[in-house]
Amino acid sequence: MSPVHIAGRRVGAGAPCYVVAEVGINHNGDLDLALRSLDAAAASGADAVKLQNYRTEDFVPDRTLTYEYVTGGRRVVESQYEMFKRCELSPADLRALKARADKHALALFSTPTSLETLADLVALDVPVLKNGSDFLGHLPLIRAMGATGRPTILSTGMATLAEIDEAVRAFRATGNEGLVLLHCTSSYPTPPEDVHLRKIPALRAAFGCPVGLSDHSEGIVAALGAVALGACCLEKHFTLDRALPGPDHRMSADPAELRALVDGVRALERSLGDSRIGPTAREAAGRAEYRLSCVAARALPAGHVLAEGDVAFRRPGHGVAPAQVGLLVGRRLARAAPAHHVFAPEDFE
Predict the structure, then answer these.
(1) For a Cys-Cys bond, which of 10, 132, 178, 185 suits 190, CB 3.0-4.6 Å?
(2) Which residues pair with 11 in a beta bridge?
(3) What pTM was estimated for this model as a whole?
(4) What is the spatial distance between Cα 257 and Cα 242, in angstroms, rounded to a whole number?
(5) Which of 233, 245, 244, 252 is nearest to 178 (CA)?
(6) Domains of the chain
(7) Is residue 153 within 8 Å of residue 135, measured between CB atoms?
(8) Distance between CA atoms of 113 and 54, rounded to whole angstroms?
(9) How does pLDDT run across 89-129, given as a tens digit for each residue?
(10) Are the CB atoms for 101 and 49 separated by under 8 Å?
(11) Which residues share a beta bridge with 75?
(12) Strand partners, 246
């Protein structure tokens, strides 16, 4: 399984988890808020920021469709068209955001909704592309992403195994092997029983590519569990303030939580270590102090022939190991052994 490289970062097995702050539409159409969100994401330790660049008419032409969400403790029902329209980012907005991301050495990428908005990202020279779960069935767009030669992230929310397979085949048919899949549950927020982290190793085994998690749950437990199961990439909704108006702020990580997530991921990565069985270097140094040795159970005279009852097991562990007590029983002492004496080969005739 080959890793993927994003802006000079290796993403895949053995590499640090790639943490993406999904600003999405949490900028509420306000460029200044979007810029400040990038600043906060960088300060919180994110590796990348993801946006959504779209033209609302590409996917919501019907202005009667509504969306219901909770914000500020109240339930809101509004036109999908109006909600998305006010959060559109122009090519000029994207350029300003890319410049701010570059200042922070923060990778910036986005989910386009058409060949035109994909072209905007290519012109911006983003290091990676993203296809959202809602567009997993848009195979022409996925093929176009693959044809750019850029690494691409595909989210798999709501998808059947057959649909994921079809999308992966469409991407790979372009000759582009730079693919990352994200396990995703498309419910907002996702309750713990619907996260299903075991799908991460299952997807990795099925498609032979790096797999991560697009996390819509509350808190950081699912994200840390994903890393423990081998997730190479984490995408987490991000907001400056959960109290801001809008559909995604309530279930997004704020700067403090994103910092906790990043710190938790890095600590967990250090804890994972490797799978080789054996003492660590620190354990090896402590074996002589903490393990047990065969010692004299009581004071024994020279010439005494050891019986099992003459041997006890005590610290330190630099002498004959308890597992080798059979080599001592029946042997004659060449010299007297005081109580608790650690037996050594030279003690015997």
Answers:
(1) 185
(2) 4
(3) 0.90
(4) 11
(5) 233
(6) 9-272 (3.20.20.70), 281-347 (3.90.1210.10)
(7) no
(8) 5
(9) 999 999 999 999 999 999 999 999 999 999 999 999 999 99
(10) yes
(11) 70
(12) none
